[in-house]
Amino acid sequence: ATPTAVMVGTGVAASHGILIKGADALERAHRIRTIVFDKTGTLTRGKPVVTDVRLFDTEASLNEVMHLAAALEVQSEHPLASAVINFAAEGLGYGQQRVGGGAKVSASAKGAATSQARRLDWVRPAKDVLSIAGKGVLGWVVAGPELSRSPIKPKEGPQDAKVVLGNKQMMADEGIPISKAVDDYMRDMEAKCCTCVMVAVGAAIVAVLAVTDPLKPEARGVVAALARRGLAVHLVTGDNWRTARAIAEQLAIINVCAECLPGAKADKIRQLQGSKKVVAMVGDGVNDSPALAAADVGIAVGSGTDIAIEAADYVLMRDDLEDVLVAIDLSRKTFNRIR
Ligand code: ADP
Ligand code: MG
């Protein structure tokens, strides 16, 4: 391609809100044979909501449990955290405190921004909170007025209760057993594409929150169009296998890799490159940046995380997966390889 063609290509990309970091990146995109998508915030909207809750083996009320869950999640930046906080706020009657009101905030804000946009003075933040990437959060909640008559009996001390939130790995690390009832419920919800967050107090699981993060409306069409162009499409996620498979099925994606910590996502990219294929990675989060950097073509979607944007070769400013196709087609056109 001539320098002029590259300039024109870059200009057309810019008009779609596609930022390309250099002519090399524009060139590489027409050779992509394998494309790997992150799930949360990339194929899904990244605005998860709690759609179902179940209490287990506890006399505590749902409100008490949600107070405990919120106490930890206010200190997490994870998208699941804002789903938990929003649900707690509504159940506890703080739903009106949204800045801007109604569904508007949850539709426009993302992750931590949602919790910041909301008044959180009803939450008593937990102490010594620890976020464990790909697993969950844990911390100590001081019994306060809202918990003073709580049937949740703190075991670890006169005042404090140890609260653990997260997935199976988190519970395994903490030595918290998962009953058959809990497991059955999660199995059900995960088959319905939900991600389950277990809430444990002391050594017992008292609740499971089922969280749904709907697919972006264009996701299925974009995956199909990529397959038609001869690309192998993969899904990688830190989420559990069952939810990942259920989501992949909806998108007709066959290649799935779940329960991946950030390092494992990058390993997956390198493994795919091993067969001499040009591999692209599409992602949005901090935990995608090693994979974005490892890929031949890293594509950061949406307003994304700064670290993801830095690691990527392409930045899609509009949160629209169609722009992945636009970028690839533009590269093919510029380098005369349109099929
Ligand atoms: P993804 O690749 O889907 O963005 P992550 O690696 O961020 O996934 O997280 C993987 C899993 O870790 C989540 O699906 C969830 O089960 C658990 N997890 C992580 N952070 C939290 C949190 N703050 N609250 C509850 N669960 C969490
Ligand atoms: Mg993500």
From TrEMBL:
Top-level taxon in the UniProt lineage: Eukaryota
Cell compartment(s), UniProt: Membrane
Entry's family note: Belongs to the cation transport ATPase (P-type) (TC 3.A.3) family. Type IB subfamily.
Name of the featured protein: HMA domain-containing protein
Portion held of the full protein: 607 to 945 of 1014
